[in-house]
Design brief:
Blueprint: H1 2-34, H2 38-62, E1 79-85, E2 88-92, H3 102-107, E3 112-115, E4 118-127, E5 130-140, E6 167-170, E7 178-181, E8 187-193, H4 207-227, H5 231-255, H6 259-262, H7 280-300, H8 308-312, H9 314-342, H10 357-385, H11 390-410, H12 421-436, H13 439-482, H14 486-501, H15 503-511, H16 514-525, E9 533-540, E10 545-548, E11 553-556, H17 557-568, E12 569-571, E13 577-580, E14 588-597, E15 600-610, H18 619-623, H19 629-632, E16 638-643, E17 646-651, E18 670-674, E19 677-684, E20 688-695, H20 705-718, H21 730-733, H22 737-787, H23 800-812, E21 817-820, E22 825-828, H24 832-835, H25 845-853, E23 859-865, E24 868-878, E25 884-891, H26 893-944, H27 961-1023, H28 1026-1058, E26 1065-1069, H29 1070-1080, E27 1087-1092, E28 1097-1101, H30 1102-1118, E29 1127-1135, E30 1138-1145, H31 1173-1183, E31 1187-1193, E32 1197-1205
Parallel strand pairs: 27-29
Antiparallel strand pairs: 1-2, 1-5, 3-4, 4-5, 6-8, 7-8, 9-15, 10-11, 12-13, 13-14, 14-15, 16-17, 16-20, 18-19, 19-20, 21-22, 21-25, 23-24, 24-25, 26-28, 29-30, 30-32, 31-32
Helix pairs in contact: 1-4, 4-5, 4-7, 5-7, 7-10, 9-10, 9-11, 9-13, 10-12, 10-13, 11-12, 12-13, 13-20, 15-16, 20-26, 22-26, 26-27, 27-28, 29-30, 30-31
Catalytic activity: ATP + protein L-histidine = ADP + protein N-phospho-L-histidine
GO cellular component, one term: membrane
Subcellular location: Membrane
């Protein structure tokens, strides 16, 4: 025992040392990566830059050997090769560098250039009459950032950043930053890093030592519970480890350590509820630790149920457990509510839309939390079984939970009183299973409980998400009602002072040219790129008037605009601009400025009115600076605005009626259902109504998430991770044949369906892509047919073509680009996209090769501009006059439509796969049970097989492998029965021989002294001394009588042993019998302690039980050495329908090497006696359906336990 404890101790310290080693390694590794000085970072950056420059130089030198080729082959995603013969561009590997000034920029000889918002390091090489420039990409630098425009850094240069705008690149003459040199030693640019902790994306390999640390920590905790000597020490470890985990979690959350963990997106989702669940990641870690803690604790906790203190305080034990379950239920309920209401995660996994990694982690987290809940209840009920009857357990649990429901009523708990029925229902389910069902059937109870918990989680998640959606919809409606544009308002703050101080504006006002004034303000003072507003300037002369229809009221110009501002305007900051809230579906701003004119001081009113916010998609999305509420919405809302009962603006999938009457009378905000949509109707001042609608299909699949929950929990429980039976930890790692069959069936079905699902998605995606390609090719042919009648497509020669392209673009909702036969852009429907440097003015090199060099009639490929991926279609355009061009259509709609089609297929396929997997779980159980049922019958019969008992044969008619096994079993039964008869006969003969030998031995022992005494008597008679003969006869007679009595007692003992089965059973008072037997030995020991429960009755033979008690008391008395004060404890108690008689002494104990033989007949350690006392005691108690066990420690004493059934 001591060796095992020492081995366990060494194992514990080894695991703990490994855990600390992993923690130290992870911390030092992370520190070494994060603690870099600015000089070290610059040095590393320059070294990587020089390495990339060397690679480019090597590629440029290879061009010398490829000079005979017409076209060089250039490799490298982060570099571009361009070639010039003289000033003519003859080669380019990427269209992004296309610019009218490209030759001018590169031929200037600068090593560092900016082309179309891209910074490049330039390497130059001459091959013959061609000058090649290799441009190494450094960083993007767009004029602004938006949803679709983000700056990126060259990842090969080592700046692994999530947001590259924090690394600023400057020209060498600008202030600030550190100089960066090329490999030739010339300064290139300055770089200034504003990267803070958390901006750098760390290597997630750093997580490995921290994960190992956590698992090793729990393993050390498991070992510590195993090696604990007593229940009290175990409790110390349990509570100590719990507080340690809570302290560790608190430090992690407060100090955001380890940093690599808190750089994960799931740890940065915002505040949830405080404490230990401030983010989705923190919630996952906390729930995983709690569930793992429960699993290890309740699997390893060793409770002595006969401990007097536990028996005395067992109701406190029950109350503590149930209250713990109540608080854990509160935690689960609180986590679900706060997780959904305070984050953007969606637990509607079945719908897949808006489901990201955080949502999946949150979903799995709640399943783990629910399984920890099951572990807690299941384990507590198993403990209750050893302390309470089923009635006591049921009433105790019900009473405590009713009290907890009252607490929920009077105090602010997350649970409602009615929701306390959920843990009560699970308690009742487990009480019925544990108390009334066999262990094999209890697994079914566990699975039922698992389904119940999954239903509860999904139901609660849906109700919480619907509640969150209502709040989101209300916020969405509020933003729509405001009709304001925060980003444009920020621009108005900038332009306000410019308008007041501008001499040009002052001059235009004096001239009175309103069109020039409007154009100057919108184009020169205010950069309107990405803003879709019309600008109109108005100069109010005191003589001007405005006539309003249909009221035909006349107002002076100043009076009209001033009244408009006073009644509907809201000042923007301290500017002269006002937001006009007219609830007409557009954002409107009105500025009021005073200027001096020859006629006097006049007011100039500048009016900005929003156009359609989305002038198509694609290029318009790139140019847009707006972050509209529509883009922030988590749900596919439709909305409408009504003014005076007439529709003024609408958007979305729902078709709104022109008049408001269809929605009924609207007096206050409410939610109504109509036409498979949920409508939130909100009245607005000035006779307006805002309606925000959401389709019922958004939550239609929510209960299908139950299948996902069951699937996830099934995977966890398939390996026994979270449920416990009383067979120990090792049983969870044992794999039964039934489980192997289930796993093989599930794996096979899952693998086949996974392959089929992937193939289906891939094939359908290709089909959809071909369909969209055909559609855009047809669109391109239509545009080609429309344009080929023109005489010119070059905007430099015929500017009117730009208007035609723009008109076609607006009608067809596509952008149109025209390239000449040299691959240079000559006309476009969206010139600003190239003017602002978002794209290059060169034809895509692959399209150039296919259309111009190989003369293909069309070419389709996927391309990307900033953050948008689209399908680009190229087609030759030949005018009637013979001029050739290349038509390019960037089809952005394809991405959205294709994604919707593919997503629909994925949703259907994944949900069908989930249904099939759940069915596979169910069917695998049925199939496995049908296969295993005959084997279970064989196993049960083999388990019940007894030597000398009645062994039944198995009836099985199938001629299969199991039938052969059954046949062998039946033949074995026949052989066993024959062998039992032979064995019984042999044992009877052996028993009689042994009995005869023992009787002969016991009789022979007294015969020897009897013979010697008679021989001595004969010699005395021969001497003739009658007085001596008389005395000798008297002495010999006494000896002979004593020996004869001893022989008679031996015969009686063996006779009694043979008659044990003849018991005279009756109900008698065992308490009285034990008390009487104990009194007989009061004088034989120093201390006789009695703890006897009164009125304990038992059914049996009173005399035989008396013999057992006397025998045990006599053995206890005789085991105490003469030099030791004897102490004997006699205790009689009833526990859970069982009678327990305990007799404990402080004698010399039973040596370990003979403990297995004390119940054998004729075995004794005393010099006298037959050795039948304990054998007879064992047989008497076993005949009554009870048992005798003992515990013994050498030189300390022995405790015998006699256990009888109370209702026997």
């Amino acid at each position: 025992m001591n060796k095992m404890r020492m081995k366990s101790m060494k194992k514990f310290w080894l695991v703990l040392s490994l855990a600390m080693f992993c923690l130290i390694v992870g911390s030092l590794w992370e520190y070494s990566l994060n603690d870099w000085s600015a000089d070290k970072k610059l040095f590393l950056f320059q070294e990587r830059l020089k390495f990339e420059e060397k690679r480019l130089d090597d590629q440029l030198r290879k061009l010398d050997y490829e000079a005979e080729r017409k076209k060089p082959e250039w490799k490298g995603k982060q570099s571009v090769l361009v070639g010039f013969k003289g000033s003519k561009l003859v080669y380019w590997s990427n269209e992004r560098v296309g610019s009218p000034r490209l030759y001018e920029i590169l031929s200037a000889g600068n090593d560092f250039v900016k082309i179309n918002n891209l910074y490049f390091d330039v390497r130059r090489h001459v091959v013959g009459d061609t000058v090649y420039y290799a441009l190494l990409f450094i960083k993007e630098d767009y004029p602004y950032s938006s949803n679709y425009v983000k700056n990126h850094f060259n990842p090969s240069l080592g700046e692994n950043l999530d947001y590259a705008s924090k690394v600023i690149v400057r020209e060498i003459w600008e202030k600030g930053g550190q100089l960066v040199y090329n490999r030739d030693g010339r300064p290139l640019f300055k770089i200034e890093s504003r990267v803070e902790r958390g901006d750098v994306i760390p290597s997630y390999f750093l997580l490995i030592p921290y994960i190992l640390y956590l698992f090793l920590l729990f393993y050390a905790y498991e070992i510590s519970l195993d090696r604990a000597r007593s229940f009290r020490i175990q409790l110390f470890h349990v509570f100590g480890f719990f507080f340690f985990i809570m302290l560790l979690r608190s430090l992690m959350i407060d100090y955001k350590v380890p940093q690599v963990l808190y750089s994960l997106p799931i740890f940065m989702t915002g505040q949830i509820g405080g404490g230990f669940i401030v983010s989705v990641g923190d919630l996952f870690v906390t729930m995983f630790c709690l569930a793992h803690y429960f699993f290890i604790t309740f699997n390893k906790l060793k409770i002595k149920y006969d401990e007097p203190r536990l028996v005395h305080y067992k109701y406190i034990f029950l109350v503590g457990f149930v209250i713990g379950v109540f608080f854990y239920t509160n935690l689960l309920h609180f986590s679900i509510n706060m997780l959904i209401e305070s984050t953007q995660v969606s637990l509607n996994i079945a719908r897949l839309i808006n489901v990201d990694f955080s949502s999946i982690v949150a979903f799995i987290t709640l399943i783990i939390a629910g399984m920890g809940f099951i572990v807690l209840i299941n384990s507590s009920v198993r403990y209750f079984r050893n302390l309470f009857s089923i009635t006591q357990a049921f009433l105790g649990v019900t009473g405590v939970l009713v009290f907890c429901a009252a607490l929920c009523y009077f105090f602010n708990f997350s649970l409602s009183p009615l929701e306390c029925l959920f843990p009560l229902a699970l308690y009742i389910l487990f009480i019925l299973g544990v108390y009334l069902m066999k262990q094999d059937a209890q697994k079914s109870i566990f699975m039922i409980a698992l389904v119940v918990v999954c239903i509860y989680i999904i139901f609660l998640a849906k109700s919480s998400e619907i509640h969150r959606e209502h709040g989101v919809r209300a916020s969405f409606a509020n933003e729509i009602i405001k009709e304001r544009d925060p980003i444009f308002e920020y621009k108005l703050l900038e332009v306000n002072d410019k308008i007041k101080q501008s001499q040009e504006v002052d001059s235009l006002v004096k001239v009175g040219d309103l069109d020039l004034l409007s154009d100057y303000i919108s184009s020169e003072l205010l950069d309107m790129t990405g803003f879709y507003y019309t600008c109109k300037a108005m100069i109010c002369d005191p003589r001007d008037s405005i006539l309003l229809t249909p009221t035909f009221k006349k107002y002076s110009c100043d009076e009209f605009y001033d009244k408009l501002i006073d009644s509907l305007g809201t000042r923007i900051g301290y500017t002269s601009f006002f937001s006009i809230k007219d609830f007409d579906g557009v954002a409107e701003y009105l500025g009021r400025f005073s200027f001096s004119t020859p006629q006097g001081s006049n007011c100039v009113y500048i009016r900005f009115k929003s156009k359609n916010r989305h002038e198509g998609i694609g290029y318009a999305q790139i140019l847009s600076r707006e972050i509209g509420v529509e883009k922030e919405a988590r749900y596919p809302y439709s909305y409408a605005k009504y003014k005076n009962g007439i529709l003024v603006d609408s958007k979305g999938d729902f078709s709104y009626p022109r008049y408001l009457e269809r929605f009924g009378k609207i007096e206050h905000a409410r939610i109504m259902n109509m036409d498979r949509f949920s409508h939130m109707v909100i009245p607005v001042e000035n006779d307006g109504v805002c309606i925000v609608s959401l389709g019922d299909d958004v939550f239609a699949l929510y209960y299908l998430n139950l299948l996902y929950a069951i699937f996830v929990s099934g995977i966890l429980t398939s390996y026994g991770m979270f449920f416990r039976f009383d067979r120990g930890w090792g049983s969870f790692r044992q794999t039964s044949l039934t489980l192997r069959i289930k796993k093989n069936i599930i794996t096979l079905i899952g693998a086949l369906f996974l392959i089929m699902t992937i193939m289906s998605i891939v094939m359908n995606a290709k089909s959809f892509e071909r369909r969209h390609s055909s559609k855009v090719i047809e669109l391109s042919r239509y545009i080609t047919d429309e344009l080929e009648h023109n005489d010119c497509m070059d905007a430099a020669k015929c500017p009117q073509i730009l208007k035609k392209l723009k008109d076609m673009s607006e009608v067809l909702w596509v952008d149109i680009n025209i390239y000449n036969w040299d691959g240079v852009l000559v006309a476009t429907s969206r010139p600003v996209i190239f003017e602002k440097g978002f794209d290059g003015t060169l034809l895509n090199p692959k399209a150039f090769e296919q259309i111009i060099e190989k003369e293909q009639i069309n070419f389709v490929q996927d391309e990307k501009i900033v953050e948008l991926t689209y399908m680009a279609v190229y087609m030759p355009l030949v005018l009637e006059n013979g001029e050739r061009y290349v038509l390019s259509i960037p089809y952005f709609t394809r991405g959205e439509e294709l994604n919707k089609d593919i997503l629909l297929i994925v949703i259907i396929a994944v949900n069908i796969a989930m249904i099939v997997m759940v069915l596979a779980f169910i069917l695998s159980s049925i199939v496995a049970e049908r296969i295993m049922k005959p084997l279970q019958v064989v196993n049960e019969k083999l388990r019940q097989m007894r030597v000398g008992g009645k062994n039944e044969k198995i009836v099985y008619h199938e001629r299969d492998e199991i039938g052969m096994l059954v046949k062998e079993y039946n033949e074995m039964v026949d052989k066993l029965e024959a062998n039992v008869k032979k064995l019984a006969k042999s044992e009877r003969e052996s028993a009689w021989r042994e009995m005869a030998r023992q009787i002969a031995h016991e009789i022979k022992n007294p015969l020897t002294p009897m013979k010697l005494n008679l021989q001595f008597m004969q010699r005395t008679l021969q001497r003739g001394n009658m007085e001596e003969v008389r005395q000798r006869f008297k002495d010999i007679s006494a000896v002979l009588i004593e020996q004869i009595d001893h022989m008679a007692s031996i015969a009686s003992a063996f006779s009694d042993f043979a008659k044990l089965q003849e018991a005279n059973n009756e109900w008698f008072d065992l308490s009285e019998l034990v008390n009487g037997c104990a009194k007989l030995f009061h004088e034989n020991v120093d201390t006789m302690e009695c703890d006897i429960e009164p009125n304990v009755s038992v059914y049996g033979d009173r005399d035989q039980v008396n013999r057992v008690i006397v025998n045990l008391l006599k053995n206890a008395e005789q085991s105490i050495p003469e030099e030791r004060k004897g102490h004997v404890l006699v205790r009689l108690k009833t526990v859970l329908g069982k009678i327990i008689l305990l007799i404990k002494d402080n004698g010399c104990g039973i040596p370990e090497n003979i403990r297995d033989r004390i119940s054998e007949p004729n075995f004794t350690t005393k010099s006298g006696g037959t050795g039948l006392g304990l054998t007879m005691s064992y047989k008497i108690i076993e005949a009554m359906g009870g048992s005798i066990t003992f515990e013994s420690v050498e030189n300390e004493g022995t405790t015998f336990y006699v256990v009888l059934k109370q209702d026997n």
